[in-house]
Design goal:
Layout lengths: L7 H5 L3 H14 L2 H8 E4 L2 E4 L2 E4 L5 E7 L3 H12 L3 E9 L11 E6 L6 H14 L6 E8 L2 H4 L9 H14 L3 H9 L8 H6 L3 E7 L22 H10 L8 H11 L17 E7 L1 H14 L3 E9 L3 H18 L7 E7 L13 H13 L5 E7 L11 E5 L2 H7 L4 H6 L3 H8 L2 E2 L10 E7 L2
Parallel strand pairs: 4-5, 4-7, 5-6, 7-8, 8-9, 10-11
Antiparallel strand pairs: 1-2, 2-3, 11-15, 12-13, 12-15, 13-14
Helix pairs in contact: 2-12, 3-4, 8-10, 10-11, 13-14, 14-17
């Protein structure tokens, strides 16, 4: 993995190899197959899930369902553990061009991300059909990871896939945080917001969850298909108003949400629903784990290192400026760390689209940081999406240094203009400073490294 994270700036920096190793260590720490096997274990006819034990002799059949960017590796591992007790399964993953493994008794399906397509709905229908067979003497194992909201869809009656696609496009452009986006999604889909619990009932349901959400609130990850939902139709309507989407939202969606707020449609699964008592949700991997692995690698490489936060949020270009300011503080006063220093932050920023350029939140963060770092020697801000994909590009992020602006201007690129147009991808491509690891098979938000050397 390390060799796929090299860029021009990392190759030329004395600390470049150490940073690539940090990134690789972070990704390895949240390998979905290893996380699944560490949580789901079998001892004869006993299935151990975290701290709980299930007697497989009490179940007639075991079903496997799931959705998310890490679904392929998780499904392979789960099927290996379940062995001959696995009856059948359906898991949907992102269509990223990566080959799909053959898993006995499990159908792997591809669908689009971040905007759902017809395959997303087909996957929803296939899982609904499978779970319709589940009885009280069945066990359902669900595998949920980031991206599941787009990959698995079953729109409510009266709302079409085209409606969901239009709303998704508007939500991705307006800079809304994932919690607000998923509040809407949960109230427009039969699977999200605990809907999978309703479908699986009266079976016992066990869910392994790989988090791609800041703070790892289980009800938000992939829109919480197996988790009771505290949000309401009224809150979903409030998101429409807060981000001024009423005039850009499909009428069918507005009508459905308004009817739900009046009590004409059933709410999402709530914590007091008795069906929620037959569910075990287990968090198997998160941004914090990846960040801690990167921190250990930084210290082993000789950096004075600190984990700044795993709750990094906000507008990408504004966050980039703040992180560059911290780099300047370290370079100037050696605070909060002496040199050589490495600060690590995890989370996920957002981008409000103002132009028609190409890029992603990590590339935009890096471009903003590059402008603020201009002229600062031996300093860098490196932003990485752990799933290997940043926005609608083949890059996972970018590397910004104090020399980035000078190098770009020598090639005729104006960093301020590219930032104004949300056009970070061609800017960093020209400098050979895009991070391009390819699909990583995991997804635990983003990591940012602030590095200041001697």
């Amino acid at each position: 993995m390390s060799e796929r994270l090299w860029t021009a700036s990392l190759r030329s920096a004395p600390w470049g190899a150490a940073v690539t190793h940090m990134m690789a260590a972070a990704l390895a720490a949240v390998d979905p197959a290893q996380a699944t096997i560490a949580t789901l274990r079998r001892e004869g006819e006993w299935l151990l899930v975290g701290e709980r034990r299930y007697d497989l002799r009490a179940f007639d059949r075991v079903w496997l369902v799931g959705a998310g960017k890490a679904g392929s590796a998780m499904a392979q591992a789960a099927a290996q553990v379940l062995g001959d007790r696995l009856k059948s399964g359906v898991v949907v993953v992102k269509d990223d061009g990566a080959p799909l493994p053959e898993i006995p008794s499990v159908t792997l399906m591809r669908a689009a991300h971040p905007t759902p397509d017809e395959r997303s709905v087909l996957a929803g229908q296939r899982i609904a059909t499978l779970l319709a067979q589940a009885s009280e003497r069945d066990l359902v194992v669900a595998l949920i990871s980031g991206g599941g909201s787009a990959l698995l869809n079953l729109p409510v009656t009266g709302v079409t896939l085209a409606d969901i696609q239009q709303l998704t496009t508007e939500l991705l452009a307006c800079g809304a945080p994932i919690g607000a986006i998923n509040t809407l999604r949960k109230h427009l889909d039969q699977i999200k917001g605990g809907g999978l619990v309703r479908m699986a009932a009266p079976a016992t349901l066990v869910t392994l969850i790989l988090s791609d959400v800041v703070g790892s609130p289980l009800e938000v990850i992939a829109s919480g298909p197996t988790v009771a939902d505290p949000t309401t139709f009224a809150e979903a309507l409030a998101v429409i108003e807060r981000y001024e989407l009423r005039n850009r939202c499909p009428p069918a969606i507005l009508a459905y949400l308004a009817a739900g707020a009046r009590g004409d449609h059933p709410e999402t699964l709530k914590p007091d629903d008795p069906r929620a008592s037959k569910v075990q949700n287990v968090l198997i991997g998160s941004n914090a784990q990846a960040a801690q692995a990167a921190l250990a690698a930084a210290r082993a490489a000789g950096f004075h290192a600190m984990l700044l936060t795993t709750f990094l949020e906000g507008e990408a270009r504004e966050v980039g400026q703040v992180l560059a300011a911290i780099a300047r503080e370290i370079a100037t006063s050696h605070q909060p760390l002496p040199l050589p220093a490495c600060l690590i932050a995890g989370g996920e920023t957002t981008v409000t689209l103002r132009g028609t350029g190409r890029g992603g939140r990590n590339q935009e963060l890096a471009l903003s940081a590059a402008i603020a770092l201009d002229g600062l020697e031996h300093a860098a801000v490196i932003a990485l999406a752990t799933d290997g994909g940043d926005g609608p590009t083949d890059a996972a992020g970018a590397v910004a240094t104090g020399a980035t602006v000078r190098r770009a201007r020598a090639l005729g690129y104006d960093p301020v203009d590219h930032l104004r147009r949300n056009d970070a991808y061609p800017f960093f491509a020209a400098l050979d400073d895009l991070l391009r690891p390819g699909p990583t098979g995991t997804n635990v938000n983003d990591l940012v490294f602030i590095v200041v050397g001697c």
